[in-house]
Amino acid sequence: MADAVGSSFSGAVAHTGLVGAIVLGVGTAVVAVLLPGRKSAEPASRDAEEKELVGTR
């Protein structure tokens, strides 16, 4: 009986570890897709600076 209990416990631990690894992988993929979706601010172009300076003279 003790062998059956030990075998069941080790099987459950292995199964839980596998499910945890799958959840971690899916979570990592979701974060990789969603997190870089934010765009950084682009610096002002040179044309915009020239247009602003045209009316200052």
Describe the structure.
With 57 residues, the protein is mainly alpha-helical. The protein has a domain at 1-35. The protein is built from two helices and no strands. The longest helix is centred in the N-terminal third of the chain and has 33 residues, at 2-34. The model has no long low-confidence stretch (mean pLDDT 82). It comes from Streptomyces canus. This is MFS transporter. Keywords: Membrane, Transmembrane, Transmembrane helix. The chain crosses the membrane at residues 12-35.
Total number of helices = 2
Ranges where pLDDT stays below 50 over 5 or more residues in a row are none
Q: In percent, how helical is the residue content?
A: over 70%
Biggest sheet layout: none
Kindly provide the radius of gyration, computed on alpha-carbon positions and rounded to a whole number of angstroms: 29 Å
- H/E element order: HH
**Backbone shape:** rod-shaped
Report the average pLDDT across residues: 82
- How far apart, in Å, are the first and last alpha carbons? 95 Å
Structural class determined from secondary elements? mainly alpha
Tell me the β content.
Answer: under 5%
Q: Using DSSP, what is the number of strands?
A: 0
Provide tags for this entry:
single chain, 74% helix, rod-shaped, mainly alpha, 2 helices, 57 residues
Fold topology:
Blueprint: H1 2-34, H2 46-54
Provide a compact summary of the structure.
The protein is an all-alpha fold and 57 residues long. Helix content is 74%, strand content 0%. The longest helix is centred in the N-terminal third of the chain and has 33 residues, at 2-34.
